[in-house]
Amino acid sequence: MRINKDLVDAIMMLTFIILVLTGTSDFENTVTKDLVMIGLGIVAVAMIILRVLNARNPEDKESHH
């Protein structure tokens, strides 16, 4: 399966930006803030893992004609 590196990078950057904005914002309900930050953290970690796996296992272009 081919993962587009640019897409992974864009999602990772957006996730970090939203995490910072969420962390510095005031929420009426702290549980909602915690859940949003946990969800974004999971997405960020998943994107980091995908980026590492994509860098570690580049697919051969010759095998896909």
Topology:
Elements: H1 5-24, H2 30-56
Helix pairs in contact: 1-2
Write a concise synopsis of the structure shown:
This protein is mainly alpha-helical and 65 residues long. It contains two helices and no strands.
Overall pLDDT score: 85
- Strand elements, count: 0
Tell me what portion of residues adopts beta-strand conformation: under 5%
Helix proportion of residues, in percent? Answer: over 70%
- Put simply, the count of helices is 2
Structural class: mainly alpha
Q: What are the low-pLDDT stretches, counting only 5+ consecutive residues below 50?
A: none
Rg over C-alpha atoms, rounded to the nearest angstrom: 16 Å
Describe the sheet with the most strands. Answer: none
Taken in chain order, the helices and strands follow as: HH
Shape descriptor reads elongated
Distance between the termini: 15 Å
Overview features:
mainly alpha; 0% strand; single chain
Textual characterization of the structure:
With 65 residues, this protein is mainly alpha-helical. It is built from 2 helices and no strands. Helix 1 (5-24) runs antiparallel to helix 2 (30-56).
